[in-house]
Design brief:
With about 350 residues, this protein is an alpha+beta fold. It contains twelve helices and 17 strands. Helix 6 packs across helix 7, helix 6 packs across helix 12 and helix 8 packs across helix 12. The longest helix is centred in the middle third of the chain and has 23 residues.
């Protein structure tokens, strides 16, 4: 199962979406004569470009010196030939700027097709290329949904419009999209243990393996490198680093103090977090509970209005009953283990 970014042209989506809901996901740059296949044979780029240089409709639209533009168009459209049944198609701007959609490719005597096209806008015919999709399971999301990570919005906003179609290989984005799909299915079905199809199970396994790989990667980092990772995560979420303690072999102290502005009923306040990274190696304290208690004591000794204590447990020890207790929550302590930190890293930094 592969994943693809499939951008729709802005300002001309209404008719394209109507087609999509009937099971045909169309793409532009599809004037008559621009088919990618001749019968069952895939046309090579040089042959396709040469053929279309003599196409009067194309020359009228783009001029006679359009060889390079045709090459670029072919390089983008050719991915439609590689999309297979079950592949996930991510449409980053769907209906409007604030929505995206996910749909899977379907085999209907093939996945890529071409026909006579549509009359869209000023053109009497365009969009001859289309992918058959499972329209019954089309999922539409709002970027305002709290379950949609900020990193996904940033990824879409910095995307290059000329990449109308391309493979989606960014592992963090794949993880986020899979998470969005599963959460939406759980909400709609009301059953978190609903049966998944084989392709979904395969993607889940890949995501699980990716998380395990990142967890191991984090545990192999030095303490200074870990602090930099956490610092970058805080910066990406709008925090300013107020202080950072360089690791000296002792632990149970405050590693990072960070803050960001917050509007509360029209007043400017500061939301502050204190972070301890517990890597397990400690001169002063043995045992996770002792290290955590030292962190809490030092935070209280600062005598300042911090809003949150964040304890990152990368010691390899299981979360103790102390860490899982209601007491930790009541004292404003957020406990993050290696797997959770790996997930946060994937969602925010890739």
């Amino acid at each position: 199962m592969s994943a693809w970014i499939f951008r729709l042209p802005e300002g001309k989506q209404k008719r394209i979406i109507e087609e999509l809901k009937e099971g045909r996901l169309r793409q532009c740059w599809g004037l008559p004569g621009m088919e990618l296949k001749c019968g069952e044979e895939i046309m090579e780029r040089s042959r396709w470009v040469y053929k279309n240089l003599s196409n009067e409709a194309i020359v009228e639209s783009w001029g006679r010196e359009c060889r390079e533009k045709l090459r670029q168009i072919y390089d983008s459209l050719k991915y439609m030939l590689e999309i297979e049944k079950g592949d996930l198609l991510f449409i980053p701007k769907f209906e409007d700027e604030n929505k995206f959609a996910l749909v899977q490719a379907r085999d209907d005597e093939g996945v890529y097709h071409h026909d006579e096209g549509l009359a869209v806008g000023e053109k009497s015919c365009d969009y001859i290329h289309y992918i058959t999709v499972d329209a019954a399971n089309l999922q539409i999301f709002s970027y305002d949904d709290l379950s949609v990570p900020n990193a996904l919005r940033r990824f879409v906003s910095r995307g290059r419009q000329k990449d109308l179609i391309r493979p989606l290989r960014e592992t963090g984005i794949l993880y986020m999209l899979d998470s969005c799909r599963n959460k939406k299915k759980e909400r709609e079905s009301g059953d978190e243990s609903g049966e998944m199809n084989l392709q979904e199970s395969e993607l889940r396994r890949e995501v699980g393996a990716l998380l395990a790989e990142f967890k191991n990667w984090l545990q192999d980092l030095s303490r200074a490198q870990l602090e930099t990772v956490v610092e970058n995560l805080l910066l990406s979420d709008g925090f300013v680093i107020e202080d950072r303690e360089v690791y000296d072999g002792f632990c149970g102290d405050i590693d990072i103090i960070a803050s960001r502005p917050l509007n509360v009923l029209g007043r400017r306040e500061r939301f502050e977090v204190l972070v301890q990274i517990d890597g397990g190696e400690c001169i002063a304290f043995s045992g996770q509970k002792a290290r955590l208690e030292s962190f809490i004591a030092q935070a209280e000794a600062l005598n300042r209005e911090h809003n949150r204590l964040i304890y990152i447990n990368l010691s390899g020890e299981e979360k103790s009953s102390h860490c899982n207790s209601q007491e930790a929550s009541d004292r404003g302590i957020l406990i993050i283990d290696g797997e959770e930190l790996a997930r946060i890293y994937l969602e925010n930094m890739l």
